[in-house]
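Reading a protein record of the kind used here takes little practice once its layout is understood. The fold follows as a row of integers, each naming the local backbone shape at the matching residue. With these conventions in mind, the following record can be read line by line:

_____
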Amino acid sequence: MTYKLSSSEYITLREFGEGCGWHPKVIGYARNRMELFEKISQEDAVILANKLGATVEDFTLYDTEWTVSFEPLPDLKILFLLVADEEFGSEFYVYYNQDAVKYPAEDALIFSLAFITLFPHEAEFLWTNKRRRLGTQIIEKRDINQLLAILKNITPDVAKIVASNLGGEFKEIGGWSITFTPITTLPITYEVGKKTRILYDVDKAQWIPEVVYAFKWLYLNAVIRETRKLMGEPLPETSSCSL
């Protein structure tokens, strides 16, 4: 059974307040990859979703070819719909659940750009069994180490609550760590102990460096932002970025 997408449940970036001007950016970004998206069949979408930890949804909008959702953080669900139309051409739509407005609009945007970059890239590998290195810039590079140093101020007790609130996996071994899994094939761990560092599978990340960089930046932002809510520390604002 399929369900018509309801505007009472799902919104675009326009409804994020600060995201009004970014809605055309995310749609334009997807349209630039439309040739690849159009090649992804419903069967391909199921395979890719299972591999990446996404969900194939039953929502439709016009003649929907497939709908896939990612949920990188609790209450941040991103829907991607490919609508096929032989007469007027295919179109790509991006929607978010209503509760997603609790997050900064730019975080929703960057997560969207990362998944839009990743999905057709993984489809190419599915079709050809060959890897190519992505060179697409999603956000402007900045010094993550400055933000990473802030994590040293977070106690294990607070980190445990932060992990729970953000859907991460917490461990306390000689310090603490939180692991996020934006896609099932590439968990990312923030570790504070003898060293403060970010851990992930370098071999897998080498093919999608810009996507991994975006994920590292986004989850680091989220941890610091959530800590600020709990500790009331004068931690720096981290959600603004150059796109």
